[in-house]
Amino acid sequence: MRAGWSYVGRRALFALITVFIAISLNFVLFRLAPGDRTSALRCQGCTQEFKQQLRADFGLDKSKPEQYVIYLNQTLHGDFGRSFVTEQPVTSELWQPIKNTLPMILLGTIISIMLGVTTGVIAAWRRNTLADKGTVWGGILFYSLPTQWLALMLILYLAGPLNLPTSDIADPYLAYNNAGAWAEFVDRLKHMILPAATIGLVLFGEYTLIVRSSMLEALGEDYILTARAKGLSDWEIITKHALRNSMLPIVTLVFLSLGFIFGGTILIESVFNYPGIGLQIYESVGNRDYPMLQGAFLLLTVVIILMNFLADLLYFKLDPRVTE
Amino acid sequence: MSVVDAPMTPLDEVRKSPSRLRSLLSFLRKHPQAAIGFVILMLFVFVAIFGPYFAPYGEREQVGPIFGTPSSAHPLGLDDGGIDILSLLIYGARVTLIVGFAGAVVAMLVGGSIGIISGYFGGKIDNALMRTTDYFLVLPDLVLMIVVASIWGRSLRNIIIIIGLIYWTYMARLIRAQVKVVRERAYVKRAQALGATHTRIIFRHVIPQIAPLLLAQTVLMVALAIFLETAISFLGLGDPSVASWGKMIETAFSRSAISYGAWWAIAPPGIAVALVIMAFNMVGTAAEDSLNPRLRVSHLARRHFRLRPLPDKEPPK
Known about the structure:
Number of strands of chain B: 0
CATH architecture of the domain at 102-287 in chain A: Orthogonal Bundle
Largest sheet of chain A: none
Oligomer: heterodimer
Distance between the termini of chain A: 12 Å
């Protein structure tokens, strides 16, 4: 067990160092770029004195190392500055979008896992049949589709027939008319279903191919032959033996892509105008709202590092041999 | 007369290696999937090179009403400015493919050299370089790209550099693993014993050995780069002065083609992107498969978290 704990410790240390590097990179990207926030300012009342005053206000007149120390100190205290647009602290401005994005990502991930595992298992079990070929080609196809384009296609061809909303997160009139909690919940779900379906389909292609090959590998093992010889049913062989053993790569894969899909939501949320973290980033780019952009970038990096760390831990739990 | 002095040439004469073209043909015959992909690619490359000569209309020429429906004169209809979409598609092929190829080549050059140095020299250099790639691997690619693009400004050159800078890590890891294997081979040891310099060994013995893998990876990388180009353009950070497929999707979306019901303004560029990405993936995967069957699965995982060898293949450190 001691080797195990040192493994966990090493992974945790790695995660911490990575967070520190991400914080520093954030500084480099935003502050060491030529010109500062005030030099791009074009306005009639902007005299040199006014710009100088602004620089002093932002702390930009100090030397870069000094600025770095101040920045580090602020970041470690959870202070990311204020949004240029709303003038509210970045942390509180990012909180609501995150809360909006999370359920959507979870729903999308569940859709993709269900689709991917089912089709992947069927394809591996019925190898070289039409079902297998269809799954592989379908997987490659969905893997190749541009995310934002898939989202637009869903709006064009699914939103109409299924009568689903294509923009925003909730119908404001429901709250105004006191329609009740259940109606509001259903309304939220309706707004969520198309973005989540986009995530689901984008990830599906990747998942199904990986489930298939991981299942194929497991099905070739001796213990499957033993299970067959014991007279177990197909269902039992798949669920109790093959799938259990091929879950390892799948579980870690899900965790890792969960981290990255946060970034992917930029494309999806800007299509559906869904007020989550992705749309926030998209709008911050348009508004040149650097503090928000900086906060969001750091936040997403930390989420990914966290997911990586969780995947490592989970992997260790599922297969303690990794420490060797 | 020692063993090392024995002439090396006869081997070549005994088993004459097939010509490049012939080996390409036999590869395509063995992998029908790659053959289909290759044909599609050649078609698109042809369009990208000669497109402007046979495009029916100009890329800025208004030839009809806004969002005009597809007709015999305009098989794919017109966009929000009354521009023929088929012509736009043909002009856009060039930019999209250039960004794809150039981005992949930048990634190959940066990642390839770091991978070779790291794998060949090993030791402290290897450790330091691989740690660095570890950290780069966890950065959220799309967000990093947006941040850098919005700071550096919108131009094709910036997009290419950004794509290269984001995907070099993947290349570096793979190449390093392969170089480590090649380094231990007898002929490298022989060259070392004969006193060949590092540069000579790397260029004469290591690179020729890993070149096919490098090429296969670059092909796969082009697909990714094109994917990223459409994403950057869609977010309004693409080069404003040129037509690309990503930008076509973006303008169709932002000029509300959806409310017009103008599917013809959205569908064609997306299908073109999907076809090209699929073709590159089919060729690249087949090449990778035939070169290194152990990697069969791991490349798929790259889009979302780039290379992280699937656990059952190679346990993480």
